[in-house]
Amino acid sequence: MKEARPALRxxxxxxxxxxxxxxDEEVNNNMKDIVATIAESDDLDAMLKSxxxxxxxxxxxxxxxxxxxxxxxxxxxxxxxxxNKRMLMLESVAKKYSIIYDYYKKMQVATVTTAVELTSELExxxxxxxxxxxxxxxxxxxxxxxxxxxxxxLRVGDVQYDASISNQLNELRREFDDSxxxxxx
Length: 185
Prior knowledge:
Protein name: ATP synthase subunit delta
Radius of gyration: 22 Å
Strand content: 5-15%
Family: Belongs to the ATPase delta chain family.
Number of helices: 8
Number of domains: 2
Subcellular location: Cell membrane; Membrane
Structural class: alpha+beta
Order of helices and strands: HHHHHHEHEEEH
CATH topology of the largest domain: Peroxidase, domain 1
Membrane topology: Peripheral membrane protein
Keywords: ATP synthesis, Cell membrane, CF(1), Hydrogen ion transport, Ion transport, Membrane, Transport
């Protein structure tokens, strides 16, 4: 994680430049696309992290891959990282940008783990719970995990609300263990 601090500095500089030009949301979308593309392609990730491949060649690949899909600020980031021979930090910078952009816009992401896919009706109820817990609304990200049996686990920042059936069963098991319940044999 020795690249975390420089990545944060690059991300802050890019955000400040994007705010000045009024394209901070567009750059955020670019950064999300960059992170998603790198995550989908092991070859691209390996190429960016390779010490054998020259920074100029890495930049050419990024220009060919993203071309007109990204704005000039994002292309400028490619140039800057290539000049400073820090292309391996691209994914980290893009992730940090999205984090500080969300903080700047006072946006939260609520991660909801459910046993089944969320419907719009359930999503509205979860949004109410998020507002009740934090006082603000949030973008909802759904993770499906059948092991929780039912209910949901809501995580917003460092706050977690566990209303899953598996958690309720575990609490019941602990109550029986604590009460020294001895069944009749």
